[in-house]
Amino acid sequence: MLSQEMNEFLTRTGPRTPMGDLLRRYWIPALLDSELPEPDCAPVRVKLLGEKLVAFRDTDGRLGLIDEFCAHRGVSLWFGRNEECGLRCPYHGWKYDVTGQCVDLPSEAAESGMRERIKLKSYPCAELGGVIWAYMGPPEHKPPLPNFEWATLPPSHRVITKRWQESNYLQALEGGMDSSHVSFLHSGEMNTDPFHRNTGGARLVKSTKTTFDILDQPGGLLIGARRDADAGKSYWRITQYIMPWYTLIPPYANNALNGHAWVPMDDENCMAWTMTFHPTAPIPEKDIELFMNGAGVHAELIPGTFRPKANKDNDYLIDRAKQKSGEHYNGVRGLAIQDASVQESIGVIADRSTENLVATDNAIIMARQRLAQAAKEVQGGRKPPGLEPADQTVRSASFIIPKDANFKERALDAVKYRKGVPHVAV
Length: 426
Ligand code: FES
Ligand SMILES: [Fe+2]
Prior knowledge:
The protein is of the alpha+beta class and 426 residues long. The protein has 13 helices and 18 strands. 23% of the residues lie in helices and 24% in strands. The mean pLDDT is 97. Fe (ii) ion is lined by residues 175, 181, 185-186, 335, 339.
């Protein structure tokens, strides 16, 4: 349970909020690189941490992320003409370059100096790992580019999608580190989903008796969830929480690894990014097709949008017969939309003052504490955690060990990033 005050503290991410200041210290996944495929392509609206922005790629291929609205009389530059190294407002022709500087103001005489004084807010961008990243924090604190395994693998070894979730980022992030819900909410898919069924993990994860061992790490949390395996052994699933909004799901056998980034668009919406990647093998075309159709932890989207086909306006296409039969535990198809349906059902911003938390919620409690602590440290002028390359190059894992074996030792070894070596999984 949290006080209303602490709930506000953790869930408000707009400019000049403590959490907003913290989150602005990290590179933010802003767009898929495929959203800006070529020079002078159509600009894209982007909402991040409550700020309305427009992204474009100029004639020279440079990326711009600037205030969505024209400095003249506020027209959305999403309607702008992306031409000759700038975005031109269609209303009266004011034009901006990738830094937000006005480079043409046709109605004013050059001598007035007016044009030079007009500059829109802009944020630096970088392209890495199939993602266009933005940095919205103080320039003097800009960290090195992210170093996640999925971002540094060859493009053939990863698939990245994103879906719009109509809730605050925190309840989505909490779902990403909540290892105990798999035995319930996703239990149907453990029998049917092509990326889960027929793995040792899919069978063992159905045990609903889960205990946790959580290790505080410099960049986040290593969340160990234990279930009984056969013959006096323990089945451990290691979820990673990497600050501020990344989670890595424990893998199933040799299937690709999966991770998420839960990025606030504003306080009532977030973008759920899904990164599927394999350390040693390309992702087959046929698998990509299945992901686009909602298999694994991806969602089927309304074409041309990032809104899932099954969404809150159609009750996530719930099928009560399949809920009864157990094919889909809550009647909703697919792991991603199951998560979205339950998390959105809480309300756009979960009221954490009325919760009744239990032992299986410990990772969530610890993550909230880490976020609050980091936000306070940033307010106090200190550097937030999770920015070191070593914090980011960790893996999730799953393994079976004797009940009395040393969990910590095994876990810390299993999650090590080893270039060119497959992940540890059952
Ligand atoms: S509103 Fe953009 S040029 Fe006038
Ligand atoms: Fe889930």
